[in-house]
Specification:
70% helix, 0% strand
C-alpha cells in the first residue's frame, strides 16, 4: 500500500492509510487537526511502528521535559512490536531513538537518509526541515530542500508546501527576493500553508518592507486560522510590522486579543510574547502587568533544559516579572547542563547559552557594560540557539542597546552595520533610531569642555 505521496507504507487497511494521509497533509499545514489524525491511525493499526515514532518525534519537538516521557512511551511501544519491514519506517524509528539519547542532529540525519532514496517523501522533508530549524542549522535546512527539489513537479500533492519550506530556508540564508517569489508561488498552490505565508512575511521583515508585509498578511487570515499554536506566531509577525510603523495601540490589541489571549505554556508562544514585550520596552513603551502571566509559567520551567531557545525566552519572562529566585534557579541548572556536555542541547547551553543568559540578567540590572560584554560573546554563535533571524533579533536589539547605554558607541555601531548587512542592506526603524542615538551621543561628548 502506498500513501498520498507514493511512498510504501506497511499499513493493512485503507481506512488507516487514509488517516495517515490526512495526518501528513495536516502536519504540512501546521493544522490543529494533526494529533487527531495520528491518534486515528494508531487506533486503527496500533502495530504501525512508524506512527508511534512520528508521535514521539512530534512530542519531542514541543520542547518540554515532561513530554519526554510520552516520547519514551512511544519508543517502548515500538520495542514491543515486530521490527519494521520497510527502510523508511526503520529510519523514522531510529530517529526517535537518537533524539531520546540526546543526539538531535543525528536524528535529523537519519530522516535525511529517507530523502536520499525517496526524495518525494514529504513527511520526511518537513520533519528534517523542522529539526534543522529547531537546532538553528539554516544551511542544512536549505541544502536538504535543494537536494530534493528536482524530484517535485507541480502535480505532487506537497509541491506547494515544499516551496513554503524552501522560501523560509532562502530567507534564513539571506536570499530575500527569491524567498518572496518562491513563497508566493507556494501559497498559490497550497493556500492553507501558513508556513509558506509566514516565510514571505519574514522576507519583508528582514528587508524593512513593512507596508508590503502588512498588505501581504491582511485579508489572508483564513490561511492560518486552522493552525495549531502556530497561528499565534503569524499574528506576532503582524504585530512586529505594526510596531515598526508606530501603531502601538494596535500592537497591544493584537497581543491581548490573539498572541497571548489563550495564556498557553508552549515555549514558542512564550517566545512570541516575551520578544514582543521586550521590543516594546526597548522602544520606551509601558507594557503594564503583561509580564506577569508569562513569568508565572516560566517559573515552572526553570529545570526544563530541553532547548536553549526556550530557556532564553523563559529568562526574558522571569526578568520582566522580576522573579529573582527563579532566575537563580534557571542559571544554576544551565551551568549544570553545560558542564555535563552530554547531548546536543547541553553543548548549546554552554555556547552561546551561558553568556547570553548572563548578559540578559546584567541588562535587567542596568549593568550595561557587563551585559554588552556577555551578549557580544554570545552573539558570535547565537545562530546555534535555533529559531529564526526575526526571533533572535530581540537579543541583537538588547545587545546593541547595552552597547549604546554603556558608551561603547563604536562597537554598537559595528553591530548595527552588521545587522543591516545581514538584512540585505535594509535599514529599519530600530536601526535608524539607534544610528541617530549614537550620532547624538558622540556630538554631546564633543561638546563637553576639556578638564
Amino acid at each position: 500500500m502506498n500513501d498520498i505521496f507514493g511512498t510504501e507504507v506497511s499499513l493493512e487497511t485503507t481506512a488507516a492509510c487514509d488517516a495517515w494521509n490526512e495526518m501528513q497533509l495536516a502536519f504540512l499545514a501546521h493544522s490543529a487537526a494533526t494529533p487527531g489524525h495520528l491518534a486515528n491511525v494508531l487506533e486503527r493499526e496500533p502495530g504501525f511502528a512508524a506512527a508511534h515514532a512520528v508521535k514521539g518525534l512530534f512530542y519531542l519537538m514541543l520542547g518540554k521535559r515532561e513530554l519526554f516521557s510520552v516520547a519514551t512511551d512511544a519508543m517502548q511501544a515500538i520495542n514491543a512490536l515486530p521490527a519494521p519491514r520497510l527502510a523508511r519506517e526503520k529510519h523514522i524509528v531510529r530517529a526517535l531513538e537518537l533524539w531520546l539519547a540526546g543526539h538531535i542532529f543525528q536524528a535529523r540525519d537519519e530522516i535525511e537518509k529517507i530523502l536520499k532514496s525517496q526524495p518525494t517523501d514529504a513527511l520526511a522533508m518537513k520533519t528534517s526541515h523542522a529539526i534543522s530549524f529547531i537546532m538553528g542549522d539554516h544551511k542544512m535546512m536549505r541544502q536538504s530542500l535543494e537536494n530534493i527539489l528536482p524530484a517535485y513537479d507541480p502535480t505532487h500533492k506537497a509541491s506547494g508546501y515544499l516551496k513554503g519550506c524552501y522560501a523560509f530556508a532562502l530567507e534564513e540564508t539571506g536570499d530575500y527576493a527569491r524567498a518572496e517569489e518562491i513563497g508566493r508561488e507556494g501559497v498559490l498552490q497550497a493556500p492553507d500553508d501558513a508556513w509558506g505565508l509566514h516565510a514571505v512575511a519574514h522576507a519583508y521583515d528582514m528587508t524593512a518592507q513593512t507596508a508590503k508585509g502588512l498588505d501581504w498578511l491582511t485579508g489572508r487570515e483564513a490561511s492560518w486560522a486552522h493552525c495549531n499554536n502556530f497561528r499565534y506566531h503569524v499574528w506576532w509577525h503582524k504585530a512586529l510590522m505594526l510596531l515598526e510603523t508606530g501603531h502601538v495601540d494596535q500592537v497591544f490589541d493584537l497581543y491581548d486579543r490573539e498572541i497571548r489571549a489563550d495564556k498557553t505554556d508552549d515555549y514558542r508562544d512564550i517566545s512570541n510574547g516575551t520578544a514582543l514585550l521586550q521590543r516594546l520596552e526597548l522602544y520606551g513603551h509601558d507594557v503594564g502587568n503583561r509580564w506577569e502571566e508569562m513569568a508565572d509559567i516560566s517559573e515552572t520551567r526553570t529545570e526544563d533544559g530541553c532547548l536553549i531557545f526556550a530557556d532564553l525566552h523563559y529568562m526574558l519572562a522571569l526578568l520582566g516579572g522580576d522573579r529573582k529566585d527563579a532566575v537563580r534557579k534557571i542559571m544554576a541548572r544551565m551551568q549544570r547542563d553545560a558542564a555535563r556536555n552530554g547531548s546536543d542541547a547541553d553543548r548549546v547551553m554552554a555556547n552561546p547559552g551561558l553568556a547570553a543568559m548572563s548578559g540578559l540578567e546584567a541588562f535587567s540590572e542596568a549593568d550595561y557594560s557587563g551585559a554588552f560584554a556577555q551578549l557580544s560573546t554570545a552573539r558570535k554563535t547565537m545562530q546555534l540557539a535555533g529559531g529564526s533571524h526575526a526571533q533572535r533579533d530581540v537579543f541583537d536589539r538588547i545587545t546593541i542597546d547595552a552597547g549604546i547605554r554603556s558608551g561603547a558607541f563604536d562597537a554598537a555601531e559595528a553591530f548595527l552595520k552588521d545587522r543591516q548587512m545581514q538584512r540585505g542592506g535594509a535599514e529599519d526603524n530600530f536601526a535608524s533610531v539607534r544610528f541617530q542615538m549614537i550620532s547624538d551621543a558622540r556630538g554631546d561628548a564633543q561638546k563637553q569642555p576639556a578638564e
